[in-house]
Amino acid sequence: MLSDAIQHALSEQIKREFSSAYVYLAMTAYFEDTNFPGFAKWTRLQYEEEISHGMRLFDFVHARGGRAAVHGVDRPASDFDGPLDVFTKALAQELSVTKSIYGLYELAQEEKDYGTQIELQWFITEQIEEEKIFDEIIQTLNLAGDNRAALLLLDRQLGERKLEEAAPR
Ligand code: FEO
User: Fold this and answer.
1) Which residues line ligand 1 (CB under 6 A)?
2) pLDDT of residue 1
3) For 15-56, how does the pLDDT look when each residue is reduced to its tens digit (9 = 90+)?
4) For helices 83-110 and 37-63, what crossing angle results, to 10°?
5) pTM for the predicted model, two decimal places
6) Topology at the third CATH level for domain 4-69+80-164
7) Relative to the CA of 49, which of 14, 25, 152, 163 has its CA 20 to 30 Å away?
């Protein structure tokens, strides 16, 4: 069984994952509108990954005999100033998600909820991977600068991304 505090915190995290999904959906709309189809595909897949993260936690709450609260998601920003601005904001988004997962993990430690700690370890590993990927993209975008040919090449490369499902529990 989940404690009330953990159940509440997990529901908040579910909301954050779905809010993240909406952040990436807004970024996808921006890239579609500005004719970067590869970046748009990449952020769309990120949207789908975030949905799978939210659903993974949703299923975890119910597997532990709890009931997830379904909150409204936050309205994402929709104005961006080019691909570098988008991915810089995306990294900031991921850093804030990492922080909230660490807070959740600390709560699970305080409550001696070992099952939730194990579940959250998957998310901690995932955040390390996501931060690394965003950082690499930002570095490449910094190198590309305003070079349109370099940006189009990166757009094509990122468009080759395949969906990675959240690993099944
Ligand atoms: Fe589910 Fe990218 O945090």
Assistant:
1) 17, 20, 50, 53, 94, 97, 130
2) 86
3) 999 999 999 999 999 999 999 999 999 999 999 999 999 999
4) 10
5) 0.93
6) Ferritin (1.20.1260)
7) 152
Query: CB-side exposure of 14: number of CA atoms within 13 Å?
Result: 20
Q: Are 94 and 137 in contact (CB under 8 A)?
A: no
CB 105 within 8 A of CB 117: yes
Residue of the nearest CA to atom 2 in ligand 1? 94
Question: Residue 27: which of 108, 95, 84, 69 has the closest Cα?
Answer: 84
pLDDT tens digit sequence for 74-117: 899 999 999 999 999 999 999 999 999 999 999 999 999 999 99
Short-list 103, 89, 81, 99, CA closest to 46: 89
In the block, tokens 């975030």 appear at: 50
Q: What is the DSSP string of 40-71?
A: HHHHHHHHHHHHHHHHHHHHHHHHTT-----P
How many A from CA of 103 to the centre of ligand 1? 15
How many CA atoms does the CB half-sphere of 27 hold within 13 Å? 28
